[in-house]
Design brief:
Blueprint (H helix, E strand, L loop, with lengths): L1 E2 L12 H5 L5 E5 L3 E5 L20 E2 L6 H9 L14 H19 L2 H9 L1
Antiparallel strand pairs: 1-4, 2-3
Helix pairs in contact: 3-4
């Protein structure tokens, strides 16, 4: 996940991070100052925004998201990417690969099957 304080950003910032965020998790609105920031429910920590901030104001934050919250995020219509990081344990990686394969298959055949999968 990422975070930053919009009050540290100059008003004339062209906000390149908004264009590279695959989940539209960064939203800033101009007024007398910049308001908004990272929408935590959308940010999954891909890091695309980190190198493009012209003022180096965006910082990475380590976190763990539970499976139910992740499933709810994936089911939304405005998310077009998910990135999964593991600690490299071979047993966990094999289970994760199987789980992701099942989810991709279910997503390919519509949200009804995916919803049924999540309820099982």
């Amino acid at each position: 996940m990422t975070a930053f304080d919009p009050s540290d950003c100059p008003l004339d910032c062209f906000k390149p991070y908004e264009a590279v965020c695959p989940t539209n998790a960064i939203v800033l609105k101009k007024g007398d100052s910049l308001e908004g920031g990272v929408i935590n429910e959308r940010c999954y920590g891909c890091g695309c925004c980190l190198p493009v901030c012209p003022y180096d104001n965006i910082k990475a934050i380590t976190y763990l998201r539970d499976a139910i919250t992740t499933a709810q995020l994936v089911r939304r219509n405005d998310v077009d990417a998910v990135e999964i990081h593991t600690n490299g344990s071979s047993a966990n990686c094999v289970f994760l690969q199987y789980t992701v394969a099942v989810i991709v298959f279910l997503l390919s055949y519509g949200s009804v099957l995916f919803t049924l999968f999540l309820l099982i």
